[in-house]
Amino acid sequence: MENQLKFFNFSCKKCGKCCSGRFGDNAVYVRFDEIEEISEKINLSPDEFTVPLIPDLYNFDEESETCEHKLNMYKILENISFQIDEDGFVHTPGRMLSRKKSGDCIFLDDKIKNHCLIYDFRPDLCKTFPFYTISGRLDYCKCEGLEKKLDSFELNKHSDYDEKIVKMSMLLDKREFKDKVEMESIKHHFLKNKNKRFGTKEGLKKAYKNAENNLIKCVVYDINEITNVDYYF
Ligand code: SF4
Ligand code: SF4
């Protein structure tokens, strides 16, 4: 991992774009252990700062300064119909951080510009942004602080770079491992529901009916439990 990372010149510019709703997908998946930690530290229940993990591509509207769903909810439900059971419940593999009306992350400070209110215990996804791994292979997202790949001459110019690379590498490895453990247990819970029928027309119809009232009935899989959540969007 360190060998892959060292060719990227990354230094966070604190532009806040990855936390804001104005610049594309800012959904932050949070693991169960992270939810527990945040919940304890800020003394809020998980439902007060997370929502079920459902694709919700946002579009920022300059005039109203709010974010709207890029796809309407019916289209989103149609796209994830394979996750909808015959009773119209959407089964989701965990939770993501809630967002404000503006589309910004719920923890982006309204008073101090680009300041994260839970910076010291923010989710791993935020700590490792813009990098992520898929089966140990490094990839990255668009980010203000990520510059072109370094050549071997430039590599030597960065004296503190080794330390940063080691730290990021450890974080990415830890994140991949923990995400995998959580996903395995979610898969295990999911198999308990294999008697249910998914992707049926009547299930989708029931989910549409709920959506008329801005409601998505969800079954959320966490590492230890399965919870029914009424998600109002
Ligand atoms: S990680 Fe990138 S996008 Fe996010 S605040 Fe830093 S420079 Fe900006
Ligand atoms: S938790 Fe903090 S760092 Fe992560 S998206 Fe929200 S404001 Fe940004």
Describe the structure in your own words:
This protein is α+β, with helices and mostly antiparallel strands and about 230 residues long. Helix content is about 30%, strand content about 20%. The protein is built from seven helices and twelve strands. The protein has helices at about 1-5, 30-40, 75-80, 125-130, 150-155, 160-190, 200-210, and strands spanning about 10, 30, 50, 60, 65-70, 90, 95, 130-135, 135-140, 145-150, 215-220, 225-230. The strands form five sheets. A three-stranded antiparallel β-sheet has the order 2-7-3. Strands 6-11-12 form a three-stranded mixed β-sheet. Strand 11 (about 215-220) and strand 12 form a beta hairpin. Helix 3 packs antiparallel against helix 7. The protein is globular. The N and C termini lie far apart (about 40 Å). The relative contact order is 0.22. One iron/sulfur cluster binds near residues 14, 15 and 143.
Keyphrases for this structure?
233 residues; three-stranded mixed beta sheet; 21% strand; alpha+beta; binds iron/sulfur cluster; 31% helix; 12 strands; three-stranded antiparallel beta sheet
Secondary-structure map with pairings?
Layout: H1 2-5, E1 8-10, E2 29-30, H2 32-42, E3 50-52, E4 58-61, E5 66-69, H3 73-79, E6 90-92, E7 95-97, H4 124-128, E8 131-134, E9 137-140, E10 146-149, H5 152-155, H6 161-191, H7 201-211, E11 215-221, E12 226-232
Parallel strand pairs: 6-11
Antiparallel strand pairs: 1-10, 2-7, 3-7, 4-5, 8-9, 11-12
Helix pairs in contact: 3-7
This protein binds iron/sulfur cluster (SF4) (2 copies).
